[in-house]
Amino acid sequence: MNSPKARRKGAAVTTPAVSSRDLPHPETAQIRLESVLHALSDPMRLRIVRELAADGDELSCSYFDLPVTKSTTTHHFRVLRESGVIRQVYRGTAKMNGLRRDDLDGLFPGLLDALLDAADRQAAQVRDLGDG
Amino acid sequence: MNSPKARRKGAAVTTPAVSSRDLPHPETAQIRLESVLHALSDPMRLRIVRELAADGDELSCSYFDLPVTKSTTTHHFRVLRESGVIRQVYRGTAKMNGLRRDDLDGLFPGLLDALLDAADRQAAQVRDLGDG
DNA sequence: GCCGTACTACGATGGCTATCGTACAAGGCA
DNA sequence: TGCCTTGTACGATAGCCATCGTAGTACGGC
Nearest-CA distance from B113 to chain A in Å? Predict the structure, then answer.
């Protein structure tokens, strides 16, 4: 609810908008552990982060095939961005998403890897139970 | 809302109550990563877990001096217990709380240490900012 | 048996949030 | 220019949740 629509309403944009469509990200020092944990405590968002980590670099929003509507998907990506977990940037019509791995590793060394490993282990366990 | 009051209402207790006051804990295999993260995403609960980890073993609920009422404290301890982060047991009138470190380390190796380290780093950073 | 301490259960409340549908904007392409 | 794809904003809704106050239970000591 910040830059894109605010401009149309004639409101003054405080942050210097380099591009016409840039998104607010928290600075590295402003990332809060509680917010990161809250962001990752949702199954849908944890799934997004796992796919981002698995695929490596940047993925568009449309890459993900989540069992929710596009509105909800947008919401989840915003939560991840505002908590500092991912970085979002427009590339044409697509919106590319990338893990803020360097920032997180600098703030909380080992945390992201431990979280991803934990998620992998839980997924493997659930898979085994499903197989019987 | 399970064992303590249910007995008075004459309902059948499914779980074999060894003591008159025992508390429902999730089994180790039932602990879900999302629930753990959600439990730790609350500042009050993260603080409780940090104190438990710092002090080592078991601490009573009254040991903690939290800026909330006792009702709310009870609520937070229950969330931590039901998510599998802590184990609670009555000892006389006191209720002792202990981290389920072995269970969590077995499920998610390195996760708890990474989380505690991250919380320590953030606390140190906030402290530095406060000192100016 | 009675009281104090420790903690809980219950109900209420206000705020957050995950979800949806609809309408709309921005960029690429024919 | 007009259309399609991609993604957003907005409003609504239902459920969860952190918090409180009050009343009550359980245990230990007097």
Answer: 9
Nearest to B34 among A33, A43, A110 (CB): A43
Residues of chain A with pLDDT under 50: 1-18
Query: CA A96 → C1' D12, Å?
Result: 29
Amino acid (1-letter code) at residue B107: L
pLDDT in tens, B34-92: 999 999 999 999 999 999 999 878 999 999 999 999 999 999 999 999 999 999 999 99
Across the interface, whether the CB atoms of A108 and B125 are under 8 A apart is answered no
Dist. CA A75–CA A99, nearest whole Å: 17
Answer whether B84's CB lies under 8 Å from A122's CB.
no
User: In 3-state terms, what secondary structure has residue A65?
Assistant: coil
Distances (CA, A) of B82 to A11, A39, A93, B32, B33: 47, 20, 44, 10, 12
Q: Which residues of A touch B116 (CB under 8 A)?
A: none
